[in-house]
């Protein structure tokens, strides 16, 4: 029964949080920094960032942060195209599903 309640709570949270995903919150500079290598990976197959072209080869290799989130973004950009809504949707799904699952798994211990 508690799993059904958890699933229902997740679905309600997703539905409520998707409504203003393009506008709220205001664009933060980290979103573009993480979307840049994801976009380049999705379009050119290179994990680099054109934002830092010429700076120690960062247009070819970008390791300023861990690559898991940009890899998920690259998959979303390949599926749905590049955009702010798509980038925030990846973060929303990750936070809304994996976060409560971790809490549930820790509670079960």
Averaged pLDDT: 81
Q: What is the straight-line distance between the termini? A: 18 Å
Radius of gyration: 16 Å
Order of helices and strands: HHHH
Total strands: 0
Total helical elements: 4
Largest sheet: none
What would you call the quaternary organization? single chain
Helix content: 55-70%
Based on Cα principal axes, name the global outline.
elongated
Question: How is this structure best described in words?
Answer:
- There is one protein chain.
- The protein is an all-alpha fold and about 110 residues long.
- About 65% of the residues lie in helices and about 0% in strands.
- It has helices at about 1-15, 30-45, 70-80, 85-109.
- Helix 2 (about 30-45) crosses helix 3 and helix 3 (about 70-80) crosses helix 4 (about 85-109).
- The longest helix is centred in the C-terminal third of the chain and has 25 residues, at about 85-109.
- The protein is elongated.
């Amino acid at each position: 029964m508690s799993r059904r309640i958890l699933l229902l709570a997740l679905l309600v949270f997703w539905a409520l949080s998707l409504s203003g995903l393009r506008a709220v919150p205001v664009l933060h500079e980290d979103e573009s920094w993480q979307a840049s290598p994801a976009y380049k990976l999705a379009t050119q197959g290179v994990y680099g960032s054109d934002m830092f072209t010429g700076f120690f080869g960062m247009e070819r290799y970008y390791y300023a942060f861990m690559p898991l989130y940009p890899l998920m973004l690259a998959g979303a950009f390949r599926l749905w195209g590049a955009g702010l809504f798509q980038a925030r949707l990846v973060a929303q799904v990750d936070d809304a599903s994996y976060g409560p699952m971790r809490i549930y798994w820790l509670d079960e211990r």
